[in-house]
Design a protein that fits this description.
The chain is an alpha/beta fold and 304 residues long. It has one domain. It is 30% helix and 20% strand. It contains 10 helices and 11 strands. It has a 7-stranded mixed beta sheet with strand order 4-3-11-9-10-8-7. The chain has a two-stranded antiparallel sheet with strand order 1-2. A two-stranded antiparallel sheet has the order 5-6. Helix 8 links the parallel strand 9 and strand 10.
């Protein structure tokens, strides 16, 4: 493994961008944080004790949900470089994506539990020819990428529940709302030069949503949505990627609570027990190491 590390290190040139951004081919930018360079090269190894700890956290949530007649789903969103690796430069994969951290964790989960885990890489790769699924100069997926993933997620959940899935039949072209080039001292890229190249849904959310901000930003912290035309209630623990899914899930479920965090506490469990049928934990691939450090509420382990 040290040989792979040294080999990768030699391929990282000073002009790769800066400590936050990798300048790729054809104007593509990639996030460098959270060990992303080594994750791209597939030389990051998740240790057995970390995998076991992460699995125990997920198993505790899953077991609690079973004991309280709820359903639990764990969703991993692929990093942008998993879908658009052809635009990476200066660094080459040392092993195939079968050795990526998401595949390592998903395989471990499936081998050692019955947790319903969804890793969306393969499905998104199938849709690459239908439009840009991630922003060229941002770290997140586009509205198109999120919509394809929404369909996969809801089709999976619909095996356990009767759901009214949102269908989008009108789309419009837009520019990217994201721009990592501002993190580059030299301003290597200009998002305006690309024009309207992203497909976004022409859709008006029917659900009524209330937001409690985090860090004085909208769409952060806690979001509660109500759509009385639906039946089941959804509780979500998530990161920023889930923001693009909110209009869809809000109109798929009756009551939806969405919290910007990846840990579950006793207050959450009490709330779920009283008010919700379905629990989702979502995180982007590069945040998997954070999940490996999470703990189920200690005072509830015996009860669980």
């Amino acid at each position: 493994m040290m040989g792979l590390y040294n080999n990768l290190k030699l391929k990282i040139a000073p002009k790769a961008g800066n400590d936050k951004v990798l300048v790729g081919k054809d104007g593509w930018l990639f996030f460098k944080g959270d060990n992303s360079l080594y994750n791209f090269a597939n030389i990051s190894e998740l240790q057995e004790n970390g995998l076991q700890a992460g699995l125990e956290y997920l198993k505790s949530i899953n077991k609690w949900c079973k004991n309280h007649n709820k359903k639990f789903y764990y969703i991993i969103i692929p990093d942008k470089h998993r879908i658009y690796s052809e635009y990476y430069r200066l660094i080459k994969k040392q092993r195939s994506d079968d050795y990526g951290i998401a595949k390592q964790f998903v395989n471990y989960i499936k081998k050692n539990s019955d947790i319903n885990v969804m890793y969306l890489q393969d499905d998104l790769l199938k849709h690459k020819n239908k439009g840009l699924l991630y922003f060229k100069q941002g770290t997140h997926w586009s509205g198109l990428g999120a919509y394809y993933s929404y369909n996969l997620i809801i089709d999976n959940i619909a095996e356990d529940f009767s759901l009214n899935k949102v269908k989008i039949d009108k789309w419009h072209m837009s520019e990217s709302p994201e721009d990592m080039s501002k993190s580059l001292q030299s301003g290597n890229s200009d998002k305006a030069s690309y024009g309207k190249i992203y497909s976004h849904p022409t859709y008006v959310k029917q659900a009524k949503c209330e937001q409690k901000g985090r860090y004085n930003r909208l769409n952060d912290g806690e979001i509660n949505c109500i759509n009385n035309h639906n039946k089941n209630n959804l509780f979500v623990l998530r990161d920023s990627f889930f923001s693009w899914l909110i209009p869809y899930v809000a109109d798929t479920f009756r009551n939806t609570k969405i919290l910007w965090k990846d840990y579950i506490d006793a207050e959450d469990l009490k709330n779920i027990e009283q008010n919700y049928d379905i629990v989702i934990l979502e995180n982007v691939e590069r945040y998997i190491p954070h999940i490996l450090n999470k703990k189920f509420p200690q005072n509830l382990i015996k009860e669980n």
